[in-house]
Amino acid sequence: MTLEILTFGIARDIIGSSVLTVEMLEGATVDDLKRQILTLYPGFIALSSLMIAVNTEYGNETTVLKEGDEIALIPPVSGG
Amino acid sequence: MLDIQLLSTPLSISACEAFVESPEVGGAVVFIGTVRNKTGAKSVTRLEFEAYKPMAINEMRKIAERALSTFSVFKISIHHRVGILDIGEVPVVIAVSAPHRGAAFDACEFCIDELKKTVPIWKKEVFEDGEIWVAAHP
Question: What is the pLDDT of residue B96?
């Protein structure tokens, strides 16, 4: 399946684009996606954290991803 | 009652205050975040805020709902700004009203502390000689 992933802040700088397209196997989880991203873009290893949002909610490691989900990379937040 | 907004225009402190007014209120607390001119020894030129908008609004709403259910407060207004902000400008305003001041102080502090932890908003500090995404690295 093809996943389109939104990027923000330093995640967009590391990837160099505001949308990242990744091919994953059916049934892939948030944890699988995170591993894939760390492999493709080792710059993420240096960050304090990396969360993944699925349909505008924080996903946990076992959240299963589907084609058409709105997925976003959430690097360490710094609002306020 | 909640008033949660993410805005690209200057925030109105009085709009947040007005939202939380009510005859039952014994006190209101307003937190006003402002852009500081220094980080450590470095002079800051400006801040740039960006947000994952639908999720940022959801997360701010969740925080305010938790504050309403945890503390004895009436109304909460949270406004956060995005875009380029100069020194002294206001990126965030949180107003909370309650029958008694203690709950208003506690709820207001809870809201800003949680906002900084969970709401997908990012701040870039721009210096004369470079820039950094705040909190990105340990």
Answer: 98
Q: List chain B pLDDT tens, one digit each, 138 residues.
A: 999 999 999 999 999 999 999 999 999 999 999 999 999 889 999 999 999 999 999 999 999 999 999 999 999 999 999 999 999 999 999 999 999 999 999 999 999 999 999 999 999 999 999 999 999 999
Of A6, A56, A76, nearest to B136 by CB-CB distance is A76
Q: What is the pTM of this model?
A: 0.96
Chain B residues whose beta carbon lies within 8 Å of the beta carbon of residue A74: 52, 120
Collapsing DSSP to helix, strand or coil, A72 comes out as: strand
Instruction: Give the pairing of strands A51-54 and A57-58.
Output: antiparallel
Structure tokens at B87: 């020194």
Interface predicted TM-score of the whole assembly (ipTM), two decimals:
0.96
Cα–Cα distance for residue pair A22/A36, rounded to 1 Å: 9
Alpha-carbon dihedral sign for residues B58, A53, B53, B95: positive
Burial B21-55 (b: 16+ CB within 10 A, else e): eeeebeebbbbebebeeeeeeeebeebbbbbbeeb
Contacts of residue A65, Cβ cutoff 8 Å, sequence gap at least 6:
A1, A3, A24, A28, A29, A30, A32, A33, A54, A71
Query: Which residues on B lie below 8 Å from A9 (Cβ)?
Result: 50, 122, 124, 133, 136
Across the interface, of A72, A75, A79, the residue whose CB is closest to B80 is A79
